[in-house]
Structures are given as structure tokens and as C-alpha cells.
């Protein structure tokens, strides 16, 4: 899945499947300029790995202005060998996209996409990351955050933390909000 960039493609109505595939792959290659390839190398990722991480970042937040910060969290975790612990990869691993709340029982999956159990990036992207998400990884914020949790106001934004204790406090607030809203 990492060989395409979602976009609007103008094609003739009678294009073959192979022709469309070739066109989309050409656009993917065009996206990867020398500058972007250099940025990927600087953060220690291949193009496929950038796509894999961008897919996770995209699934974590619909707020495009927050994605570079989330990408920075995951890059920090990768640097120190900490599991990514990304809920979207777990949902993908289980294959039940109706899950609204990841529970400990879900974390038992032996799938290589279970980033709670396995360190490093999963084998490939969990979706087709858009240009914004790819650029968020390539231009990730440089910070010391290791944790983030959805804000309890359900705004779609996240609270970020440097320490596990700070993260646990953020998570408790969010879990209490979920319980109050009867989201189980």
C-alpha cells in the first residue's frame, strides 16, 4: 500500500487497470523528490517506512496541524526501542474497525501489526496516508514527548506528556470522559 499517494488523478475513461496503476505509481515516484528522500534518510526511515508511520499518524489524528507532533512522538519511541503502542495498528491487526475503545484483551493479538507487543514499525501501512501525513513524518516536530492521549473534551486533539505518570493522569481524564459518555 505504500506505493501510492491518495490524490485526484485525471485519466481517460477507458484507461486499463494497469494504466491506472502505472499512473499512480508514477505520481508516487514524483512525490519522492530528492529533498524528501534526504529528509527520510535523516530520520532513518526508508520511503516505505515513512508511508507506514504516516499511515499510523493519519489514523491517530484527523487534526492535520497536530500530526507533526504525533510523528515526533513515534520517532522518539523508535529511537529508544520503545513499542509504538498505536491503537490504530491494533484495530487493523484485529480487523474489527467498529472498535471504539481498545481494551487490554485486544492487546493479546499475535499479529505483527500489534505495536503493543512488537517493537519497531509494523510490516506495512495500515491505510493510504495522504500527502499531509507523509509530510508530517518528514517534518516531524523535534521534542521530548513519549506519550499522547486523546483530550477529554473530544475535540480530536491530544494531550502530550514526557513522563508515564503525566500520561497516566491524561489517560485517566480521557477514560473518565469515555465512561461518562458511555463509550465502552
UniProtKB/TrEMBL annotation:
Keyword terms: Cell membrane, Cell wall biogenesis/degradation, Lyase, Membrane, Transmembrane, Transmembrane helix
Molecular functions per Gene Ontology: lyase activity
Pfam families linked to this entry: YceG
Superkingdom of the organism of origin: Eukaryota
Signal peptide: none
GO biological process: cell wall organization
Record-given protein name: Uncharacterized protein
Originating organism: Daphnia sinensis
Amino acid at each position: 500500500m505504500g506505493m501510492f499517494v491518495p490524490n485526484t488523478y485525471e485519466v481517460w475513461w477507458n484507461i486499463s487497470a494497469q494504466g491506472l496503476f502505472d499512473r499512480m505509481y508514477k505520481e508516487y515516484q514524483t512525490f519522492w523528490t530528492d529533498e524528501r528522500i534526504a529528509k527520510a534518510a535523516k530520520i532513518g526511515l526508508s520511503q516505505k517506512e515513512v508511508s507506514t508511520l504516516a499511515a499510523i499518524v493519519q489514523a491517530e489524528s484527523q487534526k492535520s496541524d497536530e500530526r507533526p507532533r504525533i510523528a515526533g512522538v513515534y520517532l522518539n519511541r523508535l529511537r529508544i526501542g520503545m513499542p509504538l503502542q498505536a491503537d490504530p495498528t491494533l484495530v487493523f491487526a484485529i480487523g474489527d474497525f467498529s472498535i471504539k475503545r481498545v481494551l487490554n484483551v485486544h492487546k493479546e493479538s499475535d499479529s505483527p501489526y500489534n505495536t503493543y507487543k512488537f517493537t519497531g514499525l509494523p510490516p506495512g501501512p495500515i491505510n493510504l496516508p495522504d500527502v499531509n501525513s507523509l509530510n508530517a513524518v518528514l517534518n516531524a516536530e523535534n521534542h521530548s514527548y513519549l506519550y499522547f492521549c486523546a483530550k477529554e473534551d473530544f475535540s480530536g486533539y491530544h494531550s502530550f506528556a514526557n513522563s508515564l505518570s503525566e500520561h497516566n493522569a491524561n489517560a485517566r481524564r480521557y477514560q473518565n470522559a469515555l465512561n461518562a459518555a458511555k463509550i465502552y
